[in-house]
């Protein structure tokens, strides 16, 4: 079994050591095992959980819902319905944000295309003015 120091876990997860300690303090992660020197050691399972939590944060899940989800997770399969509900709501929220971003991207694409057309016309106009001089 592989174990990771807090520095290694931080590096691999993309989170800071302070964030890992904070996640432990608020109950998002269980206290990791400790080595003989009392230093935190993270398992592959811990790393997989951190990866999942990171994806929830990146996609905008509020910390309070992440904490609720983590608490329910500790409760076992009997909590699966509520965990599914949390994830389904978040899934819908993420899809709505993606749709909003796609609509925004269409506007940006239009503006970029418009500027390219303007610049092309200006280039042609400049060429015509040079040719007639």
From TrEMBL:
InterPro entries hit by this protein: DNA-bd_dom_put_sf, MerR-type_HTH_dom, MerR_fam
Superkingdom as given in the UniProt entry: Bacteria
Cited CDD domains: HTH_YyaN
UniProt-listed Pfam families: MerR_1
Coiled-coil stretches: none
Keywords associated with the record: DNA-binding
Gene3D superfamilies noted in UniProt: 1.10.1660.10
HTH merR-type domain ranges (all copies): 3-72
PANTHER family linked: HTH-TYPE TRANSCRIPTIONAL REGULATOR ADHR (PTHR30204:SF98), REDOX-CYCLING DRUG-SENSING TRANSCRIPTIONAL ACTIVATOR SOXR (PTHR30204)
Name the UniProt record assigns to this protein: MerR family transcriptional regulator
Species whose genome carries this gene: Fodinicola feengrottensis
């Amino acid at each position: 079994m592989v174990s990771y120091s807090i520095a290694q876990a931080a590096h691999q997860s993309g989170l800071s050591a302070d964030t890992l300690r904070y996640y432990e303090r608020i109950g998002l992660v269980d206290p990791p095992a400790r080595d003989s020197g009392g230093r935190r050691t993270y398992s592959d399972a811990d790393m997989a959980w951190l990866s999942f939590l990171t994806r929830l944060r990146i996609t905008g899940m509020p910390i309070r819902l992440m904490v609720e989800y983590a608490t329910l997770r500790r409760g076992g399969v009997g909590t699966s319905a509520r965990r599914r509900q949390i994830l389904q709501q978040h899934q819908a929220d993420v899809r709505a944000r993606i749709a909003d971003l796609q609509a925004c991207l269409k506007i940006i694409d239009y503006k970029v295309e418009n500027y390219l057309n303007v610049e092309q016309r200006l280039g042609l106009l400049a060429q015509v003015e040079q040719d007639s001089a």
